[in-house]
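Project outcomes to date are best conveyed with an example. Our students and postdoctoral researchers have been running inverse folding experiments weekly, and each run begins with a structure described purely in C-alpha cells. The record below, which covers 106 residues, was selected by the lab manager from last quarter's runs and is presented without edits.
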C-alpha cells in the first residue's frame, strides 16, 4: 500500500487492512505516484520508485472485495512484482507527481 491505507493512517479502511493482514514490511515498486486530491494515485510511468508497505492478507478474497470498493472506479487492481497494487486509471498531470515517490514524505 502506498497511500491512505498505510500504517500512518487511521481511517476505517486502514484499520480494517491492519486487522485482516500481516504486515510484511516496507516495499518499493517501479513507477510514480501523483497527488490526485487528499490521496495519491500510482502509475507505472514515468520511471521512478514508489515507496509503501507490503501486507499478507489473511482472507484475500474478502479483504480485496472491500478494498476494491474503497478505491472505487478511479482505480484498478493490477499485479506489480507479484503483488496487488491499485493503479490510477488515467495519467495525471506531470506537475502533480510526488517526486520522492513517498506519499507520507513528499
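After processing, the design step wrote out the following sequence:
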Amino acid at each position: 500500500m502506498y497511500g491512505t491505507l498505510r500504517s500512518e493512517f487511521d481511517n476505517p479502511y486502514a484499520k480494517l487492512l491492519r486487522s485482516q493482514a500481516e504486515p510484511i514490511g516496507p516495499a518499493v515498486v517501479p513507477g510514480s505516484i501523483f497527488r490526485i486530491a487528499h490521496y495519491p494515485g500510482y502509475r507505472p510511468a514515468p520511471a521512478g520508485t514508489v515507496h509503501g508497505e507490503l501486507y499478507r492478507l489473511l482472507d484475500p478474497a474478502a479483504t480485496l472485495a472491500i478494498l476494491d470498493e474503497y478505491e472505487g472506479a478511479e482505480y484498478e487492481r493490477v499485479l506489480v512484482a507479484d503483488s496487488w497494487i491499485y493503479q490510477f486509471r488515467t495519467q495525471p498531470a506531470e506537475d502533480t507527481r510526488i517526486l520522492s515517490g513517498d506519499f507520507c514524505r513528499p
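The first strand starts at residue 21 and ends at 30. The radius of gyration is 13 Å. The training component of this project remains on track.
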